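Many introductory courses stop at the sequence. We go one step further.
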Amino acid sequence: MSDALAIAKHYFRAYENSDRDMIERLVSDDFRFISPLDNQLDRNAYFECCWPNHERIDRFELIHLIANGNVVFVTYEGEVVTGRCFRNTEILTTGDGQVTSVEVYFGWNLPHDVQSGQSAGS
């Protein structure tokens, strides 16, 4: 698989479908995972810490999926099995048909916790 957008779509589908074989093929040996809670996890730590979340994921709706060469920017709305919804953005870097790194930026709950036109900081 060489198309960065296709690779990104398959990455999220692997979570939706709890497809360990697919995610194993997609994640490179030199993979790195970064989020507000995780700093440069390697492939083994990613599978230990992050992959178990597939059990909670019901679906992803990919809202924005934009490739810039081998980098894909994805904003998605997710739903967990309890029905809670959220919105995040991830930056996936691809190479040689695999995901080589993921940066996650946590978003907000859906519906938004703050009233429209209001700020939580005021």
